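Write out the 3D structure for:
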Amino acid sequence: MPQISKLETMITAGNFIITAEFLPLPGADSKAAETASGFLKDRPAAVNVADNPHGPILSSLAGSVILEKSGIEPVYQIVTRDRNRIALQSDLLGAAALGIKNVLCLSGHHQTLTGSRQSASVYDIDSIQLLAAVKQMNDDGVLLDGTKIAGDFKVLAGAVATPDMKPLELNMIRLTKKVAAGARFIQTQAVFDLDAFAGWIKKANQLGITSKTAILAGVMPLESAAEAESLREKYTDLVIPDSVIDRLKAAGDAAAQAKEGMAICIETIKKIQSLDGVRGIHILSGGKEHRVPEIVKAAGL
C-alpha cells in the first residue's frame, strides 16, 4: 500500500498546518531548487511547487522530485490550462510513480497573464473536474475512461479558493463543489483584506465546509507599494486594499517598505490565527523562499 503523506496525517489529526510555496526558475539547473530547499527544510509541513504561473519554468513535477530528494514533502501543482485530460492523468500517474503524495488542482491563470501570451490554452476540463478525476483514480483505481490503473494510486488532493471573489454566494457554491469533488485541503489566495476574509470564513463555517476540508489561509510578504499596485492591477483575484498600499508608501525608502511589508504579513497571520475554521497558513513567497524562515519565526508558528 502507498504511504500516506505527512500533510494528510496532520489534516486527519487536526493539527494547525503551515505550508509554503517554491517558485522554480526558468532553468535546467537543479542547484537553484536545491538552494531554495535549504530555506524550506524542517519548517513547513509541505511545500507547493508552482506550475508555470508566469510562463515556462522548471516543471512542477521535476521540482517536486528535487524537494522530495532534499527531505521536503512537496505539493505537486497541476494546472488544466496547459494540458488535456490525457496529459493530466498521465502526469498524475507519473507523479504517483515517483512517490509524490500531494497534488494541488488548479485551472491556472489565463495565458495572457504570462510571458507566453501567444500560447493556446487547453482547459479541456477545469479544476473541479480534475479533482473529481483524482478522486476516481484514488477511490476506484480507474482512469476517466474506465481503464484500470496498474498498481496502487494514492494522492492527497487539494484546491485553491479566492476569498475576495464576489458574490459570496457564488464563491461558496464553487468552494462546496471543490470539496465535494475531493479537495481535502484548500489553500487560499493571499489575504490582505482581513474583514472580507473574516466574512468568508464565517460563511464557510456556517455551511459546514470547514469541517469537511482543511482551509489554509494564504499570506504574502510584499516588498513595496509598487509591487502591491502591480499585483492588484494584473491579477483580479488578488485584492490589496488602498490602506495596505498607503502604509507601504508611508514607510519610506525601499528597505523600509520591505520591512513594513513583512510586518503587515506577520500581523495578518496573527489575526487569521484567531478566526474559527482556519486550519493553517500557506506562505506565498513568490520566489522569495529565503523569507519563509523569517516569517515562521516572527509569527511564532
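The mean pLDDT is 92.
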